[in-house]
């Protein structure tokens, strides 16, 4: 997949900008706080319909303006795709997604039209933070590759919320307790579908990440991923249903659901030790970079074509060995890089360099 054009209108600190990126590496260079990351954020918005920096879409609209728009045109094996995202401060619908000339009815229709992998300094939280960050990582990956997964995830979240609401209602009206059986069944069914997809994806991602990490460290360390789920290793639906029944008394007491895929985690180990607890900052950074490179390989294996790669000010954080390994890989995919110093990319094939200053681009 290749991005042909990216257009911004009243997005963050950009009034209007049009970018025609190189087929290889396109660099956005300049001092901090000038708008380099905003370009990658716009691309990410067209990949997943949301910012990677904030859940509040109104923050993406230029100060003092009523609306913003981002449009991306891509070339893929099956032809040209165009995606546009319109954000508004007013009106009933504050986010409108267009695919070609058609307005999307659901956000899930967006997935797959612009497929990308973003690596930013904040991604260290995948290793350093709690399970929610790792669930988010795998859920976003699967949603891009399989829109049906995204809809299944939405159903699971709705079912969980409805079961929790019922538990609170039962505290006031115990006669409703028998209705929990129906919600247990639905939650187990939805959860099983999510767990099975996550397990398979983590296994495949783990193989790619182990190889990437071995390359990054010169074979000195071994990275491994393991999916941890209450769904177990066998029949996920039966396992979840059994656990829900066993936890019912506790759930009624706490008025919340203690069992399900919302408690899943991905164990990341380096040489058999948990990276979150025992790895150094450098080791954690290598683990995250390996995960991102594995995402590229998983997208290629699943879709038959590479996604775009977005690197947000990460080169300066890498030692020469890791930087060299990353540069070898970015030459194989269309890459968008932000940096303060172009020399950080020494050795990479730089097809286009844009200098960024206060939301203005010059080449």
Account of the 3D structure:
This protein is an alpha/beta fold and 363 residues long. The protein has ten helices and 15 strands. The longest helix has 37 residues. The chain is globular.
Major β-sheet profile: 6 strands, antiparallel
Over all CA atoms, what is the radius of gyration? 22 Å
Number of strands: 15
What is the number of helical segments per DSSP (H or I, 4+ residues)? 10
Order of adjacent strands in the largest pleated sheet: 2-1-4-5-6-7
Tell me the series of helices and strands, N- to C-terminal: EEEHEEEEEHHHHEHHEEHHEHEEE
Mean pLDDT figure: 92
Portion of residues in beta strands equals 15-25%
Structural class: alpha/beta
The separation of the N and C termini measures 24 Å
| Portion in helices | 40-55%
Task: Kindly list the characteristics that best describe this protein.
6-stranded antiparallel sheet, 10 helices, 24% strand, 363 residues, alpha/beta, 6-stranded mixed sheet, 42% helix
Helix-strand layout with pairing:
Layout: E1 2-11, E2 14-19, E3 25-29, H1 36-48, E4 67-76, E5 79-88, E6 95-99, E7 102-103, E8 116-119, H2 125-128, H3 131-145, H4 147-172, H5 180-216, E9 223-228, H6 236-246, H7 248-254, E10 265-270, E11 273-274, H8 275-278, H9 281-303, E12 308-312, H10 320-330, E13 335-339, E14 350-357, E15 360-362
Parallel strand pairs: 3-13, 3-14, 8-12, 12-13
Antiparallel strand pairs: 1-2, 1-4, 4-5, 5-6, 6-7, 9-10, 10-11, 14-15
Helix pairs in contact: 3-4, 4-5, 4-7, 5-6, 5-9
């Amino acid at each position: 997949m290749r991005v042909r054009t990216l257009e911004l209108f009243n997005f963050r600190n950009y009034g209007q900008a049009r970018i025609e990126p190189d087929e290889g590496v396109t660099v956005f260079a300049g001092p901090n706080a000038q708008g380099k990351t905003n370009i990658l954020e716009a691309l990410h918005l067209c990949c997943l319909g949301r910012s990677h920096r904030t859940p509040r879409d109104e923050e993406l609209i230029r100060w003092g303006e009523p609306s913003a728009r981002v449009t991306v045109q891509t070339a893929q094996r099956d032809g040209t795709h165009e995606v546009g995202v319109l954000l508004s401060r007013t009106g009933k619908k504050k986010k409108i997604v267009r695919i070609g000339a058609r307005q999307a009815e659901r956000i899930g229709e967006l997935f797959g039209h612009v497929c990308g992998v973003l690596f930013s300094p904040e991604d260290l939280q995948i290793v350093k933070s709690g399970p929610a960050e790792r669930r988010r990582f795998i859920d976003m990956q699967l949603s891009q590759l399989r829109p049906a997964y995204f809809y299944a995830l939405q159903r699971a979240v709705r079912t969980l919320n409805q079961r929790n609401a019922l538990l609170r209602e039962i505290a006031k009206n115990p006669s409703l307790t028998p209705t929990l059986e129906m919600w247990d069944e639905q939650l187990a069914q939805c959860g099983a579908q999510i767990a099975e997809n996550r397990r398979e994806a983590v296994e495949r991602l783990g193989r790619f990440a182990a190889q990437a990490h071995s390359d990054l460290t010169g074979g000195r360390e071994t990275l491994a991923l393991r999916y941890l789920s209450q769904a177990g290793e066998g029949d996920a639906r039966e396992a979840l249903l059994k656990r829900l029944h066993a936890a019912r008394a506790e759930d009624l007491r706490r008025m919340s659901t203690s069992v399900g895929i919302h408690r899943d985690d991905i164990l990341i180990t380096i040489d058999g030790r948990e990276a979150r607890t025992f790895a150094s900052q450098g080791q954690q950074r290598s683990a995250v970079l390996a995960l991102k490179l594995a995402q590229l390989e998983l997208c290629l294996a699943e879709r038959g074509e590479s996604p775009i790669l977005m690197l947000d000010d990460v080169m300066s954080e890498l030692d020469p060995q890791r930087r060299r390994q990353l540069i070898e890989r970015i030459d194989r995919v269309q890459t968008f890089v932000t940096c303060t110093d172009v020399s950080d990319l020494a050795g990479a094939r730089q097809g286009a360099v844009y200098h960024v200053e206060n939301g203005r681009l010059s080449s």
